[in-house]
Write a structure and sequence with these properties.
With about 160 residues, the protein is mostly beta strands. The protein has one helix and 14 strands. The chain has a four-stranded mixed sheet with strand order 10-2-1-13, with no helix packed on it. Strands 3, 4, 9 and 12 form a four-stranded antiparallel sheet that branches. A hairpin with a 5-residue loop joins strand 7 and strand 8.
């Protein structure tokens, strides 16, 4: 897989809150199964991706963000890890929504990276250990050690 992240500004608020959309245009180079977080709420037919990593390049800190919301009764609705399949030469557009009141980013330049997991049977355990161990495949700071073929989004917060 390869891809590029971009901002997309929404005209209307989501649940009456300021919302920013990040889109990930994905090119699939071979048949692949992946695990990715998705926020799915059938009541309002909401279905979008979740799990973004915000890495502050100025102070080398990381914020892990997964979307959560509330139903009409005040119950929390979390995203879920889903197994997804894509075909060779498929193109997809993944949308991530971020409510600006859900988390705080301090001043600095951030690299934004989407989280997804592709099972790599052909990567040796030695290479995995050198990059940080099996933690590199989890939604964690160590995930940034995996060399991606993705153009990350960069943003400056002042």
């Amino acid at each position: 897989m390869s891809g590029e992240l971009n901002f997309e500004f929404l005209e209307n608020g989501f649940f009456d809150k300021e919302t920013l959309a990040i889109v990930f245009d994905v090119d699939i180079h071979t048949n692949v199964d992946i695990d990715a977080y998705k926020y799915i709420w059938f009541e309002d037919t909401l279905d979008f991706y979740s799990a973004l990593i915000f890495h502050n390049l100025n102070n080398d800190t990381t914020i892990l963000h997964r979307f959560s919301g509330y139903d009409i009764y005040g119950n929390i609705v979390n995203d879920q890890l889903r197994k997804l399949s894509f075909e060779e030469n498929e193109q997809a557009r993944w949308q991530y929504l971020i409510q600006t009141n859900q988390f705080y980013l301090s001043t600095g330049q951030y690299k934004i990276v989407p989280y997804f997991f592709i099972k790599h049977d052909f990567i040796s355990q030695g290479m995995i250990d050198k990059m940080g161990g099996d933690q590199i495949f989890s939604f964690s700071n160590e995930y940034l050690m995996v060399p991606p073929d993705i153009t990350p989004l960069s943003v400056f917060i002042d």
